[in-house]
Amino acid sequence: MKLLFLILLFLLPTISYSEKSPKDIVREVKHLVQYKEDLIDYYQTPEETLKLGTGDCEDFALLIKKLCEENSISAKIYCLYPRNEIQGHAIVIGQYQSKYWYSSNGWFSYVDDFKSISKNIASEMHWRGDISMVTLDTLEGIKISNK
């Protein structure tokens, strides 16, 4: 038993652990969670989203951000709004190996800059005109009535 322990102790520093990239994380989330729009906008915890297997944009964003943080990957949640609108779209933006990336509803893309992100989201959401982008630090457990 001592010999096995010494061998493991000697080999442990040479074993490489595969690091998850944000793309890997988003792929896993997309596999586990399906998009489902809320009737009353409730921001689920990441645990609720995994348990239910469904969520909308902010639920995807909260889960992806949490998993990125657990893997030491920089990630923040942003909400984008078209001009004169109060309903927006939550996404995750981060930086990994000197590249910017974002995820929207479980889709992933590397981008050159923030302007590219807002342009891509405007196209995805069929928005025209100026887009505002606001960072959100925490969204968990908030209920918003759509009345």
Task: Give structural notes.
This protein is of the alpha+beta class and 147 residues long. The chain has one domain (22-144): C8orf32 fold (Roll), CATH 3.10.620. Helix content is 37%, strand content 29%. The chain has 5 helices and 9 strands. It has a 5-stranded antiparallel β-sheet. The protein has a two-stranded parallel ribbon with strand order 1-3. Strands 2-9 form a two-stranded antiparallel ribbon. It is globular.
> In DSSP terms, counting alpha (H) and pi (I) runs of 4 or more, how many helices?
5
How does the overall form come out from the CA principal axes?
Answer: globular
**Portion in helices:** 25-40%
User: What amount of the residues lies in strands?
Assistant: 25-35%
* Element pattern in H and E: HHEEHEHEEEEHEE
Structural class: alpha+beta
Averaging pLDDT over every residue, what do you get? 82
Please tell me the CATH architecture by its name: Roll
User: Major sheet, described briefly?
Assistant: 5 strands, antiparallel
CATH domain class name: Alpha Beta
What distance lies between the first and last C-alpha atoms, to the nearest angstrom? 67 Å
Main sheet: strand order: 7-6-5-4-8
Kindly report the CATH topology. Answer: C8orf32 fold
Low-confidence stretches: 1-17, 140-147
Strand count: 9
- Count of spatially separate domains: 1
**Rg, nearest Å:** 19 Å
